[in-house]
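[audit] Reproducing an earlier prediction to check determinism. Same input, same settings, fresh worker. If the tokens differ from the archived copy the diff job will pick it up downstream; this log only records the rerun itself.
[audit] input (306 residues):
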Amino acid sequence: MFAKALKIAGSFTWPLLIAYKTVSGRTFTAIATITIINKDGWFLTAGHNIREWQKIVKECDRTQLILRDIDVIENDSLIDKEAKEIHLSKLPLIQEMDKMECSISYGLNHNITAKNLNFSQPLVSDVGYDPLDLAVGRLEPFNPEWVANYPIFKDPDKNFFTGTSLCKLGFPLHGVETHWNDETGEFELPRKYLPLTYFPLDGIFTRNIVYSGNGPIWESIKFPVMSVEMSTPGLRGQSGGPIFDTDGRIWAIQSRTLFYSLGFEAPIPAKDQTVHQFLSVGIGVHPSTIFGFLKDSEVRCAVSED
């Protein structure tokens, strides 16, 4: 059903890798997704991807600042050993799992970096999360020929029918391990992991979810804040990827997974226990919200005629 659409969506769906190294030398890598939206190299992704990256950068900066202070004290020839110990004792302690180096990579196949990143401000909602979970950025350098098919977004005012078959695409189910090269001072991704493979997951469009709230942040939003709900969950690694129909048109940008209580428990006879049951559904940012967000950021995208 989605074979044709996957050929279209696969060209504008790229991996996003965030890697960091701890003081102990261990490295960790998280994978998410970006969606290239036009020939100028602009992309969309989930806002929480960029906020997590900024959090990691802040933690690395803190560790590097402490390490520089330690180095300055230890190499200060004007103070004795006892004075150095006093100064060092006043510095924050560094733990083995503190982050000290980090890197973000887009696309993997091209030498590109992300510029002019903008991301949504957290909205204080009654359900405790940010429904405007969007980030927009521009890749530089960028060659338009890197993308064979640029996306068309579904017009939400035309034939936006509940029950439509949709598909999510991204890069889940990967166990990627980056390595830190002390000589180059860079992270390296072993070629055995390349290329990262897509994983599609289909379902149906179940309903629109409309959000509202009070306060200055909500008052600053001049467009609808909405989500598209799907009957299947999003997988870790698909955040920021497209949710599209059988023609490859984007209906939403994957954001997160919600869990609805089913109100009953299933027995586990071997353990004489029961487990509460939940329905997992996928949540994507609605095109009405995407269009408003892109307009505020002065970024263009193509919209379907039907």
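[audit] rerun output stored. Observation attached for the diff report: Helices lie at 3-12, 47-74, 81-89, 216-220, 287-296.
[audit] end
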